[in-house]
Structure formats: C-alpha cells, structure tokens
Specification:
The complex is a heterodimer of chains A (294) and B (375).
Chain A (H helix, E strand, L loop, with lengths): L1 H42 L5 H8 L10 H14 L8 H32 L1 H15 L7 H10 L5 H24 L4 H9 L4 H35 L9 H10 L3 H32 L6
Helix pairs in contact in A: 1-2, 3-11, 4-5, 4-7, 4-9, 6-7, 7-9, 9-11, 10-11
Chain B lengths: L1 H4 L2 H15 L14 H17 L6 H23 L8 H23 L5 H29 L10 H10 L1 H36 L1 H14 L8 H8 L3 H24 L4 H9 L4 H35 L9 H10 L3 H29 L10
The chains are: A mainly alpha (294), B mainly alpha (375).
C-alpha cells in the first residue's frame, strides 16, 4: 500500500523533472548554437554534429548553461573551496542566511505583537488592519535599495539594513495569520474561560495562543520565504561584497552565466531548506500539543 | 475618579499640556519666525478643549466632532508654524504634537465604539477610521522630520515628496508608461493566462497534475526574482525582459491556485452534472470554473503585487533610460531621495488601484460567495 502511494507520487514528479531537464538541454544547444557557429567559422573549424553539440554544452560563458555545468559549478563552489573563500557558495549563502534569519526573527516578533494588539484593542483593529493590507499592495521591494543606500549614508551598514527589509516583508503574513489564529477559538471556549473567571491575560496564554499555533507556522513558512527574497534583493544595489544577491549582480555584470545560475540554485536550496525547517518545527510543536498525526 | 477613568487619553493630554506650558517657548530662541503669543495660546486652548470635552457625557457624535476639529486644527497650526524654522523645535513643540495625537487617538477609539445603524454609515466609518489613522502617520512624519530637522537624505517630509510629485509629472508619466503599461500589464496578462491554461491541462491529465503540483508548490517558495538578470541577458534591456520576469513570477501562483480551485466543487454537484449527462467541458464551464473563481481571484491578487515587484526589480539589472526601477536606482546614486519617494508613492498608488480593480472584478463575478454576501 505504502509502496503504491510512493510510486504514484514520486513517478510523476520525476517524469516532469526529467522532461524539464531534457527541455533545458535542448534549449542550451539551440540558444548556444549561433555563437558556436560563429566561433567555428572564424576558427575555420568544421565539426560533426555530435562534436558541435558537445561544444555548445561546454562553453565558458554560454547564453544558457547546460544543467551539468551548473551542477558542477555548484558542487565545486560548495564542497571544494574553503568556506571563507570569496568564491565559496557556502560563504555567500551564509551572509544571506544571517540577514534572512535576523529579519525573519524581528518580522515574526513584530507580526505577533501587532496581531496581539489588533485582537485586543478595537481601535487598532479598525484603524491599523486596513493599512496593513494596503501595505501589501505596495511593491515594498522597490524601496529595498533605498533603505540600504540611505542607511549606508548615515553609517549603518552590514546586516541591519538587509534585515530591516526582510523584517518588512515577513511581518505581514505573520500578522495576518496570527490575527486569524488568535481569533480562531470558538465562542464556546471563550465563554468557558469566562465562567472560570479567567483574566484576559490567562485567556490569551491558555486558549488563544495554543489555538493560534497552526496558523503561526503556516504563515511563518510564507514569511521565511519572503524574508529570503528580501535579503537577496537588498544585496543588489549596494555593490555589496558578499551574499547571493551580490553574486547574481556580479554574474550579470561580467556575463558569468554559470555563476549566476549557481547562485540561483544556492538561493533555491536555501529557501527549500528554510521552509522545510519551519515545517518540521510546526510539526514538532503540533505533536507536543497532542495533535494526532493523520 | 470614574470621570478620570472615562478618558485616559484626556488625562494624559492635559498633563502633556501642563508640561508644555512650563517649558515654553515652542521653538529655540534664535528661530527666525517664532510662534506668536496668540497662536501658542490658541493651540493650547484647542488641545485643552479637546481633552476636556472627551470627559463630557454629551453624546458620542458631539464628542467625536469636537475631537476631530480640535486635534487636527491644533496639528495644522503646529505644522504651519514650523515652516522656515526647520530643526528649531524644542521639547514643548513635540509634547504638543503628542498631545494632539492623543486626541486623534481618542477620536479613533470613540469612532470604533460606534454601533452604526445603517449600511451607508458602516461604509463611511470603515473608510473614515483608517483615513484618520493614515492622516496621523503623515502628520507625525511631517512634524518630526521638520521639527527635529532630520537630514533630508534620511527621510524627506511628505510635503517635499508631494512637491516633487507635482513638479515632475512628465518624468513620472514616462516611467509609468515604460514599466507599468508595457512590462507589467503584458507580463501579467500572459503569465496569468499561461498559468490558467496549464492548470486546465493539468486538470485533464491526472499524471501531469501529480507531477506539476509539488513542483509548482516548491517554486512558489523560491526566490524566483533571481531570474531577473538572466532574463535581461536573454531578452535585452527593453521592456520585453521585464515582461518575461513578470511572466515567470506570475505563472506559478496562478497554476497552483487554479488547480486547487478546480478541486473545490463538491462531489454532490459534480454527480448532479453527471446525471444531467453533461460532458467534461460543460461541467468545467458551468460548475467547476465558477466554483474555482475565489481561488483564481486570490492568485490574481497575489500576482498584481508580484508583477509590480518583478518589473521594478528587473530594471535594476539594466534598462533603457526610462522606467520606475531605473529612476529609483539612479536617483539614489545622486541622493535625490525625494524623487525616489515620489516613485514609490506612485508605485504604491498604482499597486493599490491595480489591487482594487481586481477586488472589484471579484465582487462582480463571485457575488454568490459567502464572504461577499450581505456585506
């Protein structure tokens, strides 16, 4: 039974991935061919079709790098270099990760605080909530470069400006999710707390907080992905020395396409890792609170 | 005692007024245009009246209107008096600003307690309360940046940003035309349409659905914005590359949400359709697509923001000399911060309008949905 479910889930995903990789290879050959043909004509080289295809897949600065080139680059820069080296992807990922985590922590704390305020103060609910929602229709990321440059002008550099942007991006999902979560207890439960003569504070800790946990972790997953995006974009404008964003920018300046794709892969792995960790954290908390695994 | 408890903000406001009275004048002694005696007295009087009225049992509407007038008139006088005296404000000035803010806060609390009788009144309240709150953010921003003389680069006052917007309308219009009307709209339409079509395909072919959905879910967590430099390299500096970024960014939310939405119709309804002997396409058009509308509109809303972000950020990687992202990144380099804020204000406005249009369209198409019924 279990085996069957595994195959019905894994096989389609693997097939689609295989198709994507095949399309990628074809695209690489097709997109790199004009340049290679030009190169061959200038060098007066005539090559068979197979040789030609081989060459399009091993250019140093291809338009579309082949998957194996990217994988090789990621592997080299992750495992074969010293972690402190400027070319190491681990180093760049760490720089991005640190500001992501700082921003995520601040953002989550801020989001929870705002949610607590909104749930308990009616005036805040009426006045602040519409603005929080409106703030999401604003392309916040557009101010990322400004925050970084402006703070650099008053000698605040390094982690804090990037973390600020991550904070801004990650507080919203947490705030909205927590408002929903803190309001999720049924009226009957709230009434029960009232019959126990529980104070607002006790109701909050013993009823609202536990009830909001599933909502918190769902929104934290969104928030952690958003704060990674924030950190990466914040690294773009500064000519920042390190980080996945600066690696992307440097790659685009010097046409180092393979480096660019490698940085993109590193960012994606980071995102997948962070979301998984938050997901596991959510499951652990769920189990501690006695939710039966289904 | 119960009288004092009735309005905590009122007590605090009166205390602040007293402290400010002791610590007069409002501006530093060498300020070029000091507040006149009468103006200062008027401001103090207004705030005191507002604070005292907040204790009176004269009916909520009367109290709210008095608070509304006194708080904003006082703030207006305070801000009006600071022009020419930037950076010269003293403690008492900020105390009075804080006092009038407390009155504004009191006004919002009173408004929030009102139980509206009619539907129009509810709507008006729903707009008025956030509007007052937003106005106070602007008032505090203006008063603090100009009163304390915060460096222009760090945070320009709203009035300067407004001046810049009205002063450089042609540039802003050209940027909007390049970024919004070309890149964002095209990318948004194509990306959403592509996501929708692939979702229908995935719905037809179960194998495709099982393969694509996990990948789509994964992709929506990834920093897709990182493909921007690659797209710029492939499609050149003009708007086509930005549209490509927008397409990639909007595709996956649409795909995932539409597939989820197509599964939303109940099995009873589907059985009913089968008993009517309706085919796949009939069921799709008459039952499942309408049922999927809330999900599809959710994706359209998410995408409206993503599209703006994608196009603006992609312009950081190379662009012709027009466009909102281009303007932001170059004016930053020249430290023209007010221009950057002007672009952001325009982007915010367009983002809100975009979202609003999608929300209105949702109201019109999914009027049957519980969240839209009965207001």
């Amino acid at each position: 039974m279990r085996n069957e479910r595994l195959s019905s889930r894994i096989v389609p995903v693997l097939t689609i991935v295989a198709i994507i990789i095949a399309i990628w290879y074809l695209a690489a050959i097709w997109m790199n061919a004009p340049f290679q043909r030009d190169l061959d004509r200038r060098g007066n080289v005539t090559s068979t079709t197979m040789e030609f295809v081989g060459k399009t897949l091993s250019q140093p600065k291809p338009v579309v790098p082949a998957p194996h080139q990217v994988v090789q680059n990621v592997f080299e820069n992750t495992f074969l270099r010293k972690v402190t080296s400027n070319r190491s992807l681990v180093y760049h990922s760490w720089v991005t990760l640190s500001s992501t985590l700082a921003g995520f922590a601040f953002g989550t704390a801020l989001g929870v605080l705002i949610a607590v305020g909104i749930v308990h103060v009616k005036a805040l609910d009426r006045s602040l909530m519409p603005w929080i929602i409106a703030s999401q229709t604003v392309p916040i990321l557009a101010i990322a470069p400004m925050v970084v440059v402006v703070l650099a002008a008053v000698n605040v550099t390094g982690l804090i400006p990037k973390a600020l942007i991550s904070t801004y991006l990650s507080f919203f999902p947490v705030a909205v999710g927590m408002v929903k979560g803190l309001r999720s207890p049924d009226l009957i439960h709230l009434d029960l707390m009232r019959t126990y003569n529980a104070s607002t504070w006790q109701t909050f800790w013993k009823l609202r907080m536990p009830a909001s946990m599933p909502f918190l972790f769902t929104s934290m997953k969104v928030a952690v992905a958003a704060s990674l995006v924030g950190a990466i974009v914040a690294e773009l404008p500064t000519g920042a020395a390190a980080g996945i964003g600066s690696k992307l920018l440097a790659g685009s300046y010097y046409s180092q396409t393979i480096d660019m794709w490698a940085a993109l892969i590193a960012g994606s792995l980071l995102a997948a890792m962070l979301v998984t960790i938050v997901g596991i954290g959510g499951r652990v908390v769920d189990r501690r609170m006695g939710v039966q695994a289904t | 005692m119960t009288l004092l408890l009735r309005s905590g903000q009122g007590v605090l406001t009166l205390l602040l007024c007293l402290v400010a009275l002791v610590r007069l004048p409002l501006l530093a002694p060498d300020a070029p245009f000091p507040f006149g005696m009468e103006t200062t007295a008027l401001i103090l009087l207004l705030i005191a009246i507002g604070a005292l009225v907040s204790f009176l049992p004269i009916g909520r509407l009367a109290r709210v209107s008095v608070l509304l007038v006194t708080a904003h008139l006082a703030a207006w006088l305070l801000i009006g008096g600071i022009s020419g005296n930037e950076g010269q404000a003293r403690l008492s000035y900020f105390l009075l600003i804080a006092a009038s803010w407390l009155l504004g806060w009191r006004c919002i609390s009173e408004l929030a307690e009102i139980k509206p009788s009619s539907r129009q009144f509810t709507m008006a309240l729903r707009l008025l309360i956030p509007a007052i709150f937003g106005a106070w953010i602007l008032i505090l921003w203006e008063a603090i940046t100009r009163g304390a003389g915060i460096p222009f680069i760090l945070l320009p006052p709203p009035s300067a940003i407004w001046d810049r917007i009205t002063g450089s309308l042609p540039i802003l219009a050209a940027d909007v035309r390049q970024t919004i009307l070309k890149a964002v709209l095209f990318g948004y339409l194509v990306g959403c349409a592509a996501g929708f079509i692939v979702a229908i395909l995935a719905d037809r072919v179960a194998f495709l659905r099982r393969g694509l959905l996990p990948i789509g879910n994964l992709m929506s967590a990834l920093p897709i914005i990182g493909v921007a430099p690659i797209m710029v390299m492939w499609f050149g500096f003009d708007w086509q590359s930005k549209a490509a970024v927008v397409i990639v960014m909007t595709f996956f939310p649409m795909l995932v949400n539409t597939v989820a939405g197509l599964g939303a119709s109940g099995s009873i309804e589907r059985d009913l359709m089968r008993s009517y002997a309706s085919g796949y396409w009939q069921t799709l058009c008459k039952l499942r697509l309408p049922a999927a509308m809330p999900f599809i509109f959710n994706a359209l809303k998410i995408n409206s923001t993503l599209a703006l972000i994608g196009a603006i950020v992609a312009e950081f990687f190379g662009t012709p000399i027009v466009g909102m992202g281009f303007r932001i990144s170059t004016e930053i380099g020249r430290m023209n911060v007010d221009m950057v804020w002007a672009e952001i204000a325009v982007a915010a406005l367009i983002g809100s309008v975009f979202y609003g249009v999608v929300a209105l369209a949702e109201r019109a198409t999914t009027f049957w949905h519980p969240s839209n019924r009965g207001g």
